[in-house]
Amino acid sequence: MAKPTQTLRMAPLRSVTVYPKMLVHLDVAREESKRAFLDAHGADEPLFLLTQRNHEEDPGASDLYSIGTVAVVKQIAKLPNGMLRVLAEGLFRAELIDFFSEGGCRYAQIGLIEEKRGSSEAELSALRQMLLERFDELSSLSPLPPDVIAAIHSLQEEGQLADTIAAKALMDLEKEQAILALLSLRERIERLCLYLDENIERKRLQQSIEHRVRQQMEKNHREYFLREQEKVIREELGEGESSAASLYRERLDSLPIQSEAFEKISKEISRLERLSPSSPETEVSRNYLDTLLALPWGRTTQDSLDLGHAREVLDEDHFGMEKVKARILEFLAVHSLTHAKKGAALCLVGPPGVGKTSIAQSVARALGRNFARLSLGGVHDESEIRGHRRTYIGSMPGRLLTAMRQAGSMNPLLLMDEIDKMAASHNGDPAAALLEALDAEQNATFRDHYADIPFDLSGALFFVTANTLETVPRALLDRMEVIELGGYTELEKLEIAKRHLVPKQLKRHGLTKGFLKLSDETLRAIIEKYTREAGVRALEREIASVCRKAAMQRLEGKKSLRVSPKKLHEFLGAPRFLREKGEQGPRVGSVNGLAWTAAGGEMLVVEAVPMRGSGQLLLTGNLGEVMQESAKAAVSYIRAHAGELGVDPEFYQNTDIHIHVPEGATPKDGPSAGVTIASAVASALSGKPARQDISMTGEITLRGRVLPIGGLKEKTLAAHRQGIQTVLFPLDNLYELGEIPEIVRGDLRMVGVKNVDEVLSRVLLGEAPQSPPAP
C-alpha cells in the first residue's frame, strides 16, 4: 500500500541499479543530474535515483522503470573532464508517480512503499540458508574478493542480504530491477535463487567450453613443438622432405583456392611432412600435390569481345557453317552486354569431314581463349572422365581435369570430340559422368574422384562433336544446344579446296602456287569423279595424292606443272565414281530413294520384281525391322488400291513380290523409304516405267498419307550430287527448304507431296492413276 507522496529531486541512471542500505559510486555527466546531486548535497536532502530502460539522453516516462531508491549523497568530487564522481547511499524503495523539470533540475513525485516479509521467520531462515548456498556455489565458479564474501555472510537482515547479493552477482539490469521491484521478501529471495541457478549453469557451461578450447590449444602447441623438433632432426639427418613441404606450402599460399580445397591440400602437405622419404606413399603424395597445385586456380584469359574481329577470324578459317558462326557471335554479344562468367555447351552434329573439330579451334582463336581437346571415341570407363580414386595403384585424374590443367586457365574452350562413340560397360557409363560437367547449374563444383575437391568448370566453353545423336543419351542432349551441320555442296567444296585445302597441301609438300596449278575445272573433276562424301576429308586426300606426284616431278627437274581434268587419271588413276544420269531412261520396278546416314545423305535405289507364285513378299538387301514394316505397309496400300492403280486385284494370290535394295552388305533401316518402295511395287505390278530423274523420300501410312522425315538437307544434297532433277518430299517438311543452299534449290525442282497418289502421278509414266486423295 503506497504511503503519502513526497517530492524530491530526481536523477535518472543508466546501466546501474541502486539498492537500499548500499553505498555506490556514480559518474554523472548530464547537466540536470549534476544539478540534482549538487543541490541535494548542498541542502543535505535526499534525492530519488531511478534506472532507465535504455540510454536515452532525455528520457521520458516510458523510458524509466517505475520503482527506484531514495538515497543521500555522501560525497561529491569533480573530475577533470567535467563529470562528477558521487558517492551515494540507498535508503528505501519508492514508486515514481510523476516528474517534471524546474530550474534546470528534475523533480519526482514519489509514493513511499512498504516492504513485506511474506512468510514466517522459520521459512525466511531456510530461504536465507538456501540463498547463501547458491551464492557460495556461484562464488566458487566466479570468485569474488574474500572480504566481499565475508561481508555478505555477516549480514543478518534478509532484505539487505538479498539486495546485496543481487547487486554483486546478477550483472543483468533487467534482473536487478526485477529484484528491486519485489516488495515481498519471500518472493524476492525465491526469484533471486532462480536467477543464481541460471548464472551457475551458465558459468559451468562457459568453464566447460574454456576447458575444451584450452586443451585444443595445448594440443596444437604440442604438435607444433614436435613438428619443429622433427624438422631439426630431418635437417641433421640430411633429409629434404621438410623443405619440399615448405615449397608446397608457399605455392599453396600464393594460389586463390577456396576453403575446402585449401584445407584438403594443406592436410596432404602436413601428411607429406610426416612421411619417411623411403616410404612408397611419399611419391604418391607428391604426385597428388603436383596435380592439384598445377591446376589453373584463379587464372583466366580476357575474352576478345570484338564482334568484327571474331567474324573475320571465323570467315578466314571456314567457308560456310553460318549457323555455328552466328551462334558464336550471339554468345559474344550476350557476354559483352552481361559480362557473365558462365560458359555454354554447344553440340555440333554432322557427317565426317565437315569441319566440326576445326571450327572449335577457330572459335577459341576468335575469342582469345586457351584450347584443349578431349578425344572421347572408344571411351567406355567412367574413370576416364572422373578419374580414379587414390586408393588404386597408378590412379590419375580424369580427362576433364587433365584438360583444364593443359589449358592453363579457368575459362578455356574445351572440345569433347566424338561423344557419340562412347559406350557404357561394367566400369560405368562415361556419358553419365559428363552430366555434371555440362550442366551450368552444377559444374561450378565439379568433383573429380582423384582430386576429391570441388573445381569450378562454369567458366569453360564446351564444344561437343558427334556424327549422330542416336547413341547420345537424352539426358546429355538436354544439357547442350544442338547445332546440325549438313554436308557441303559441290560449289562449297570447290571454294574450300581453293581457299584452304590446296594451299595447306602445297605448304605441307614443299610446293608453291607457281609450280603446281590446279584449275577450277580440275578441282571440280576431283570432287565429282574421285570423291563421294558429305565433307571434304577424302577430297583433301586426293589433293595430297596429286601433290605427292607433283613433288616427284619437281625433283626430276620439271619447272612447272599444270594438271588438267584430262590428266587426272595420270595422278589419281581411273575415276571411281561416275554420275548415272537416271539410268539413261525410265525403268520398270526401279525407283530412286533418298537415305540419311552418319556420313551424310545417300541415294538409295529400290528394285521390285513380280514373279508367279503364291503371294509371298521377299525382302533382301540387309533391311532393318522398321524398313521391312514400311515395305509391308506399301504392299498393303497397293493391294487396297489395286483397281485404281491398274494392278491385278488378285495379285496377292498368284504373284510373289521381291523387293531388293542394292549394296546388301550395308545395313539399312528407317521409315523414310516408304514412298520409294510403294512406287517401285506399283511400277512393277502395273508395268508402267518409273522416271529415273526423280528421287523421293517420305514415310507412308496404310491410308496413303506421306509423313514428315528427318535429314532433308543431307538427302537433297545427295540427290544433287547424283544429277537428279526433281525431289519429292513430304509437304510437312516444307519449312526445312530454307536450310538447303540456294544453289542446290536452283538446280533442283523441289515438290512437296501429301499422299502417295501425288507421288505415283509424277513418277510413273503412262496414264496417270485417277483416284481421290488419301484422307
Helix content: 40-55%
* Class inferred from helices and paired strands: alpha/beta
**Total DSSP E strands:** 24
Number of helices: 27
Rg measurement, Å: 48 Å
Shape: elongated
Unreliable segments (pLDDT under 50, ≥5 consecutive)? Answer: 768-775
Please give the largest β-sheet: 7 strands, mixed
Report strand order across the widest sheet: 18-19-17-16-20-23-24
Distance between the termini: 104 Å
| Beta-strand content estimate | 15-25%
pLDDT averaged over residues: 85
Task: Jot down its keywords.
single chain, 775 residues, alpha/beta, seven-stranded mixed β-sheet, five-stranded mixed barrel, elongated
Structure explained in plain terms:
- With 775 residues, this protein is α/β, with parallel strands linked by helices.
- Helices cover 44% and strands 18% of the residues.
- The protein has 27 helices and 24 strands.
- It has a 7-stranded mixed beta sheet. Strands 1-3-4-5-6 form a 5-stranded mixed β-barrel. It has a 5-stranded parallel beta sheet with strand order 8-9-12-7-13, with helices on both faces.
- Helix 10 packs antiparallel against helix 11 and helix 10 runs antiparallel to helix 12.
- The longest helix is centred in the first third of the chain and has 53 residues.
- The chain is elongated and about 135 Å long.
- The C terminus is likely disordered.
